[in-house]
Amino acid sequence: MILICGASGLVGKEMCNFLDKKDINYIGTYNKNKINKSNMYQIDFSKPNLLEDFLLFHKIKCCIFCIVERLTDVCENSWNEIKTTNVDLVHVTSYLCNKLNIKFIHLSTDYVFDGSRQPNLPDSLKNPLQNYGISKLISEYRVLTNCKKYCIVRTPVLYSTLSKIHDNAVCLIGKNVMDIRKNKLFKEDNYSIRRPLYIEDLCNFIYDCLDEKYNGIYHFYNPINKYTKYEICQKIGTFLDINIDKIIQNNTKSEGLAPRPYDTQLQDDKINIIDYSFTNFDDSIEKCFNKFKHPKINIQNKDDIFILLDMDGTIIDSNMVHYNAYKSVFEKYNKIFLTTKQWDDIILNDNIDNYLKTIFDETTFHIIKKEKQHKLLHQDISFTNNSDKFIRFLIQNEFNFCMVTNTNKETVDTFKEKLPLLNEINQWIYRDDYNLPKPNNECYELARKKYHKNEGFIIGIEDSMVGYKALKPCTDLIYIYNNEAIFKKEDCYLFDDFSIFL
């Protein structure tokens, strides 16, 4: 039986897919990211006795170890934490595998080299420049000390289609391309060389390493790929049809918190690398970013696009309007209301009603809501950056779109009095129309059922995490208005001005 340690990670997911396609039996492990499959188990690799019992019970013959903390800047800040993951867990697992006569396959990195000379063979001088490379080199020494039957596989930077963009070091470069804020400029490295390896291609070699004839340290790499981060941005921008003029080339040596080697080109004289097939880089980029490509929102493509729009905070600048109305009511009841920071945290990540119900009983809660409604009449309200022009464009050109809001119809009618353009929108889903508020997707699912006319693409536009979560199951693609925190964590476009659609 084969064991995939870290089946929820980047390489682990791809390796499980690979073995599934080959109809090979295996089991996998996860820690916090639960995998709901019968052959997946939650295991604490820091507990040797439990781990040994697990290996014996499942009669493991080969262990593929994919558990790692690989974010170099994280590693630079937290040595004790990453030592536990990148060194100690490898030591415990490789020791037990040797004890039980289990072959141990360990994934390492080209960052054990300093990039000052090319190419690097398995026995070339190691000189890691940062904590990540140091931790991986120490883990290699633990495997070499502990094991007789082992493969250490060093690879360059890896990427995959199976995870979010920020989980892929190569795809993460595309974040600057997908940040389409008009006045935001970025610098991108056009100096250091990356040699990205598509994980599907790596899986073929890991599979070969299951054979007993493979024993020792190996380098597996794509012999063709050779790009700077800026060149990767160009390829992603070309595929997504996004102008990358806002991304400025940095042609001199630059380093983040953790120093990066210039070029850690790998080579191996024990394997014939041309015996392996590699996915064309342009094709792999297409696979990784295809879910973000869609027809432009223009008149020519209007019949192929259905748009779901949030209202509060996205189309209208109403967050502080609601805040001030609630604050005024709280003052009437001699209660201290939330700070603006606490308010933002709740409305972007939760529901204000949940908070109100912790302060007031059911009867008072409804009174508070009605009094807040009255206070709204005295508040100023405006559209967000050029959202009124965007709405007019959609209406005039007869796009199919729907406004989906967590706000009740009575409040929306108040907003319509203040912003008459809202009256020209024909398709609405109000809070009164559904039972469960965002982040539940009931509201967007209802909009889709009522108004979607089988257009090829459903595009959602939101500004909050609760909105993002509600949209995600119902749309092909999400644009986030002016919320960088969501963009950093999730797969979406980020913008701050609706004129980008015009």
Describe the overall structure.
- The chain has 502 residues and is an alpha/beta fold.
- It has three domains: 2-161 and 195-223 and 265-281, NAD(P)-binding Rossmann-like Domain (Rossmann fold); 299-315 and 381-501, Rossmann fold (3-Layer(aba) Sandwich); 319-376.
- The protein is 38% helix and 14% strand.
- The chain has helices at residues 10-21, 48-57, 72-77, 79-99, 131-146, 174-178, 199-208, 229-240, 281-289, 319-332, 340-349, 352-359, 362-376, 387-396, 409-418, 442-451, 465-471, 484-489; strands spanning 2-5, 26-30, 40-42, 62-65, 103-109, 150-155, 158-159, 186-189, 197-198, 216-219, 247-250, 305-309, 400-404, 428-429, 457-462, 477-481, 493-495.
- The strands form four sheets. Strands 3-2-1-4-5-6-10 form a seven-stranded parallel β-sheet, with helices on both faces. Strands 14-13-12-15-16-17 form a six-stranded parallel β-sheet. A two-stranded parallel sheet has the order 7-9.
- Helix 1 links the parallel strand 1 and strand 2 (26-30).
- Helix 2 (48-57) crosses helix 4 (79-99) and helix 10 (319-332) packs across helix 13 (362-376).
- It starts with a strand and ends in a 7-residue tail after the last strand.
- The mean pLDDT is 92.
Helices and strands in order, then pairings?
Blueprint: E1 2-5, H1 10-21, E2 26-30, E3 40-42, H2 48-57, E4 62-65, H3 72-77, H4 79-99, E5 103-109, H5 131-146, E6 150-155, E7 158-159, H6 174-178, E8 186-189, E9 197-198, H7 199-208, E10 216-219, H8 229-240, E11 247-250, H9 281-289, E12 305-309, H10 319-332, H11 340-349, H12 352-359, H13 362-376, H14 387-396, E13 400-404, H15 409-418, E14 428-429, H16 442-451, E15 457-462, H17 465-471, E16 477-481, H18 484-489, E17 493-495
Parallel strand pairs: 1-2, 1-4, 2-3, 4-5, 5-6, 6-10, 7-9, 8-11, 12-13, 12-15, 13-14, 15-16, 16-17
Helix pairs in contact: 1-7, 2-4, 4-5, 8-9, 10-13
